[in-house]
Amino acid sequence: MSTDVPHEPDAPLEAEFAADNTDSDYAGEVDPGLADRLAELDDEVAEQRAASLRAGLSDYELDEDDLDVLEAAEAGPDGITYLPALPVLAIVGRPNVGKSALVNRILGRREAVVEDVPGVTRDRVSYKSEWLGRRFTVVDTGGWEPDAAGINASVAAQAEVAVDLADAVLFVVDINVGATATDEHVVRMLRNAKKPVILVANKADDAIKDPQAAELWSLGLGEPWPVSALHGRGVADLLDHVMTVLPPVSAVAKQEIGGPRRVAILGRPNVGKSSLLNKAAGEERVVVNELAGTTRDPVDEQIELGGRIWTFVDTAGIRKRVHLQQGADFYASLRTAAALEKAEVAVVVLDVTEPISVQDLRIIDLVLESGRALVLAYNKWDLLDDDRRRYLEREIEQDLAHVTWAPRVNISARTGRHLEKLVPALETALESWDTRIPTGKFNALLAELTAEHPHPVRGGKQPRILFGTQASTRPPTFVLFTTGFLDPQYRRFIQRRLREVYGFEGTPIVVNMRVREKRKR
After folding, report:
1. Which residue stretches belong to region Disordered (predicted)?
2. Are the beta carbons of 248 and 223 closer than 8 angstroms?
């Protein structure tokens, strides 16, 4: 029984191929007339040839998966649908009262990073949730403190912005501590915002503590709701009440767009990912600080850039291998990987003032493994001197030779320099990611390549490509039906030719094989 054999970065076989194919240089340039001949080839003639090749597969053993691949319908263009803006519920309070734990309880899953130390959440982070058949947006915020300085001041400012952009607010207080001076400062801020406020007395783990909630009437926000975010006690009743306060359609949120392209911003800590998001948004959307590792939760933001709406996702910097991390950094890395899986294109930010590191290469490999489109953003270009530029070009040539197909953008997230060049790079990468090659043209390309550069003989046999088809897009995935195993170098050779003829700039290409034997008569 044979299965798909994906393209893998095996040890190169250049020397072996050179010995077997002295007249055929697999690393050489493609026949300059090949692209023109394929372009001139009549589509109807090409499809007839492909149909003939496909009919020849009936002589070979095929299973149900093979038939599914052969019968796969070509995907149509993706549409964009406009949906009503979901009501927004902001959750605020001083540090370490359990805001993120309450967010996770409302969502019904562990989404927000939670650790038993104050100040884990720093940005305002939005999540989609549902209760009683109604969808709404929950916004988690960092702890609000009066007279905060440094990074804490930025965290507090983001919490205030979250209140301004919400339809209702959950004000969380620790029932075991009671109302503090900081809580009273938060109440004044909430009254100035003039938004509906629901007072939540968290950490009421049992009914014995419920009477303590009566002390919170002194804050002047009405009846406190005793809950336990940790155990879920009282949260259902709280959400029932929230549904009576939230409007059906948000009065403050933008119209939600179902289908804006999702862009994940990845990189090592402190390379300028959050600065890039803020500059693209034109406002201080996420907390930026010289302290490495400021971002911990992936932050989604819809941004209008280049005349289009994009969903940019700022992620936590990947410091080192996940299994060597601890606490909030460990969960932040897991959420970064999850954010990448939900994205369509990844912008990997590289700091040009520092040498390309193993961490940078690991992040790029993470994108390649996920199959997402890729754009390389070389940040802090305004700080680059001539000596460092020469070294950088050498590092790119040596360390990033495997992603020469990725669009490159030289930017400065701090000043906004060349930020406008990011949009064409994203559009190019996504267009390639969505590209589908007609089956007839693909088989014509394979026929040309195998005629000029046949696969070398292995063990007295020469594998042949019977038929090829593009099984899917996102990323472009090609399936080759063959009579034997194709060497990894030969598959890379096919990938190179696909790029030289059809571009595929900004997207990885997957070439799988299905080795099939002739039916026994």
Report:
1. 1-25
2. no
185 backbone dihedrals φ, ψ, rounded to 5°: -65, -40
Which residue positions form the known binding site? 93-100, 140-144, 202-205, 267-274, 314-318, 379-382
Q: What are the tens digits of pLDDT across the range 388-414?
A: 999 999 999 999 999 999 999 999 988
> Does the reported pTM lie above 0.70?
no
Give the tens place of pLDDT for each residue, 247-298: 988 887 655 444 578 899 998 888 888 888 888 877 765 544 444 444 444 5
**Equal fold, 86-245 vs 260-430:** yes
Token pair belonging to 38: 């394929």
- The H or E element that residue 152 is part of is helix 151-164
Closest CA to 239 of 311, 168, 189: 168
Neighbour tally for 111: CB within 10 Å: 20
**Rounded Cα distance, 294 and 450, in Å:** 53
Report the binding-site residues for GTP. Answer: 93-100, 140-144, 202-205, 267-274, 314-318, 379-382
3-state DSSP assignment of residue 137: strand
CA distance 374 to 406: 6
Domain 14-76+436-515: which CATH number of 3.40.1280.10, 3.30.300.20, 3.90.226.10, 2.60.120.10: 3.30.300.20
Structure tokens at 276: 């890039």
